[in-house]
Design brief:
The protein is an alpha/beta fold. It folds into 2 domains: about 170 residues, Spore Coat Polysaccharide Biosynthesis Protein SpsA, Chain A, CATH 3.90.550.10; about 80 residues, no CATH class. The strands form 4 sheets. The protein has a 5-stranded mixed beta barrel with strand order 3-6-4-5-7. Strand 4 and strand 5 form a beta hairpin. Helix 3 packs across helix 4 and helix 4 packs antiparallel against helix 5. The radius of gyration is 22 Å and the shape is globular. The two termini are about 40 Å apart.
């Protein structure tokens, strides 16, 4: 479908205001068609967030229905707190939401330049669609494609990129802190689920089940999560380091059954 326009969204985010979201997307579709660009959606920061990547924007290049499309100066990895404060104060940085809009023909052209192996694989899969060997060829080609994210493989390399601002409320539910922002807390600012008994406990996330009682006394800012075969306990300020714990489990063959 060379004339089609695609919207790519993450699965793990929350957007309460769907009307505002749709309005931005509709404008984005028009801009993507008018400019034949790879269009990304940045979110106006509301806090110095260190768990998100950022997009530095420049001059206004295009617009539709009052929504401006800006040049993208650079994509920035997750910053430390002081750098995040600078980004917030500058007014030129947006959160990288991981949402994109583009015409399929534009995407194919950019892939042919920056990710030729993936481009060739897509063409090979396209040739077998509707044929008897469609599933076999698709699986074979897909398994041989390079494993790289669209951000690193394409968006950070292409010069044909614009960014629009998502003015709607948005949260990436990819961390315990984001979950904390999205769910209702009790009188002590705790989120609790399962059989939990807490005393003098504040600002914590405690998630268990109905089979095991979790007793918590005199703690603050903790994340405690019990699953069927594992327990996680960490400070909320260290939640981004959980991935380091997961890597250690992955590197230890004796712990693979816990993955």
């Amino acid at each position: 479908y060379p004339a089609a326009t695609m919207l790519i969204c993450a699965a793990d985010h929350i957007i309460p205001d769907l009307v505002s979201f749709k309005n931005v997307i509709d404008s984005g579709f028009k801009i993507a068609k008018d400019t034949s660009c790879l269009l990304t959606i940045g979110i106006q920061p509301s806090r110095p967030e260190t768990a998100y990547g950022y997009i530095e924007t420049g001059d206004t290049i295009s617009q539709a229905d009052g929504v401006n499309a800006y040049e993208v100066k650079q994509f920035v990895e997750k910053p430390d707190y002081n750098r995040a404060v600078q980004y917030l104060d500058s007014g030129n940085f947006l959160w990288n939401s991981g949402m994109f809009i583009w015409e399929t023909q534009t995407l194919l052209e950019e892939l042919s330049i920056h990710l030729p192996e993936i481009y060739s694989g897509i063409l090979e899969i396209g040739e077998c669609l509707g044929k008897r060997d469609q599933e076999e060829v698709t699986l074979k080609v897909f398994e041989e494609l390079p494993r790289i994210s669209i951000d690193y493989g394409l968006m950070e390399k292409s010069k044909n990129i614009l960014c629009i601002t998502g003015t709607f409320s948005w949260d990436d539910v990819g961390s315990w802190s984001s979950l904390y922002r999205c769910l209702n807390t009790d009188d002590n600012n705790n989120i609790q689920s399962g059989q939990v008994l807490s005393i003098n406990t504040k600002d914590s996330i405690i998630l268990g089940d109905q089979k095991t009682l979790i007793g918590v006394v005199g703690v603050k800012d903790l994340i405690i999560v019990k699953t069927r075969d594992a327990i996680l306990i960490c400070n909320k300020s260290d939640e981004q380091k959980v991935k380091d714990l997961v890597k250690e489990i992955q590197d230890d063959d004796s712990l693979h059954n816990f993955l």
